[in-house]
Amino acid sequence: QVQLVESGGGSVQAGESLRLSCAASRVSIVNNCIGWFRQRDGMGHEGVAAGYSGDVATYYVDSVKGRFTISQDSTRNTVYLQMNNLKTEDTDTYYCAVSRGLCDPTRWTDDRRYMYWGQGTQVNVSS
Fold first, then answer.
1. What is d(CA 30, CA 79) in angstroms, rounded to the nearest whole number?
2. 112 band by pLDDT with thresholds 50, 70 and 90
3. What order of strands is seen across the sheet that includes strand 68-73?
4. How many other CB atoms sit within 10 Å of the CB of residue 79?
5. Are 107 and 124 in contact (CB under 8 A)?
6. pLDDT band (50, 70, 90) for residue 31
7. pLDDT at position 54, please?
8. Residues paired with residue 118 on neighbouring β-strands, in sequence order
9. From the centroid of its chain, how far is CA 78?
10. Helix, strand, coil percentages in the chain from 3-state DSSP, rounded to 5
11. Rounded CA gap, 56 and 63, in Å?
């Protein structure tokens, strides 16, 4: 069965960096849309970034543009989210997810479009 495993979360201070990883099995990260979402308790998923085939097409929510970068290593079937200059409002549980085919430029933040999800990794940013 398809499995997505996130790692790399942790506790940092504002201004520091983290790199999240999403290792995929039984689904290729190539030629599929890989999304990163975050969620706080009791709230819905917020789309943070999405990418198709590495940097062929990437998308970011405005609040992370210039700070977060999505990338991939096809040899490891792994997608990364480099998060720089972290802010306290970035504190959340982060999930990676897969949507078959291209990312929809206008709907990549819609979590209903993603059929496979990881278990999440916690990011805590303190001031």
1. 10
2. very high
3. 3-7, 18-25, 78-83, 68-73
4. 28
5. no
6. confident
7. 66
8. none
9. 11
10. 5, 50, 40
11. 21
